[in-house]
Amino acid sequence: MVALAITSSSLGQQEAHPGNRTNVAHAIIDRTLYVFGGIRPNYVVLGDLWAFNMATRTWTRIETSGTQPGALQHATMVANGTASLIVFGGTDARGVHSNGLFSLDLQTRTWTQHQPLTTRLGAPARLPALERVRGVKIDARRVLFAGGIGPDGSTNATYAWKLDENVWSRSAYTDMPSALHSHALVS
Q: What is the pLDDT of residue 172?
């Protein structure tokens, strides 16, 4: 990997890096960019996690444990404050859309798979199987997921995951005016 230092206009070579890939999930916490999964030019779908320290301009592969999301492309990643990362959706190597919802505790580097309920005391929620969905943390309690592509095509649906109650539901926000995927959300 070659990195360009904008302030000094110098190029630097680095040995450890995630390599060529596209369709990654990514999030930024403080001065660290996290990159998960994606697909290589030879169509190998990946399930690794890398961190890029913007201050030192170095990549580090993050070794993790727990119930991991597996190899995915087109997943979405959301920063949950500075404590954890959330990964939802994506497509596996067979082209199957995922409805997996995972969080990574950055302190312990342990993945947890979440199986939200429809209400606090309700049945398990049926999460949509989506790729190219986007998520954004809208407050301390909720993550909003919007749009994406599922088995039936693009969607305009919005969903909310209440972290403290582990409840998944169609969002109280209205659906988007039209179906949308591969977009961006910013908080």
A: 67
